[in-house]
Amino acid sequence: MLLKTSSGLLRISLKATRYFPSSVERSPRDLEIAKEQGFSIVLMSYFALRDDPNENWKYHCRRLGLKVLVDSGAFSSWRAAEEGKEVEPIEVEDYARFLLKHQNDEILFGCFTLDVVGDIEATKRNTEYLKSMGLKPIEIWHVQSPWEVLDQMIAEQDHPVIGIGGSVKLSEEEREEIFKELFTRHKDQNFHFLGGSSKLLYQFPWLSRYLHESCVHNFFKTIPHIDIYNVVSM
């Protein structure tokens, strides 16, 4: 699909759903399965990677020729705190240092911004900080935020893809209503579904989504091979 962006540039998008195996930071075997099935990019969480001082994740990804899309792990951190666990907060400065350290190693495919659950302004500040450090984070909009925030994001800047978060604890009916509005309102924008699992992933034209560790083995039993991931290029 050939689209004109808000700045007047042309973008070529292949419209289908791209899967990123995730929750594989500590599982070399799952990384091997992903490679065997034709994946070249996996998604890993900084929330988990920061506790790997020996950088085993990098060793195994290099060994297998995999690139990494990095998620901040903000939701995992928030959920752990909600469950009463003691967790070290994710600081945007630490996240930026991690990304900058590895971005020249030809192993990072990209990164998501450090979003703050329920705080639009804090999420925006984190995004601007990451950009000020020379990074190009994928921005995130939470479904609890006003539609006008998303409208403004898309109007002000070209986004090859925007992450959609905050829907994990919603019912399928609530999600469906929001997603209908999302894809009606911005039918030409590419969106990545953040977290969770839902039959609605097949009802709407998502660009990409995670494939969680718990789904990896069963997924390949039902879909033997996915060798074409759907690329967005400018």
- Give the C-alpha Rg: 17 Å
Structural class: alpha/beta
**Order of H and E elements:** EEEHEHHEHHEHEHEHEEHE
Percent helix among the residues? 25-40%
Give the biggest sheet.
5 strands, parallel
Q: Please state the overall shape, judged from the principal axes of the Cα atoms.
A: globular
Strand content: 15-25%
Question: Total strand count, please?
Answer: 11
Average pLDDT for all residues = 84
Cα-to-Cα separation, first versus last residue: 12 Å
Number of helices: 9
Order of strands across the main sheet: 3-10-9-8-7
Return residue spans where pLDDT drops below 50 for at least 5 consecutive residues. 213-234
Question: Any chance you could write out the topology, listing elements then pairs?
Answer:
Layout: E1 2-4, E2 10-13, E3 18-21, H1 28-36, E4 41-45, H2 46-49, H3 56-64, E5 67-71, H4 74-82, H5 92-102, E6 108-111, H6 120-132, E7 140-142, H7 147-156, E8 162-165, H8 172-185, E9 191-193, E10 208-211, H9 213-222, E11 232-233
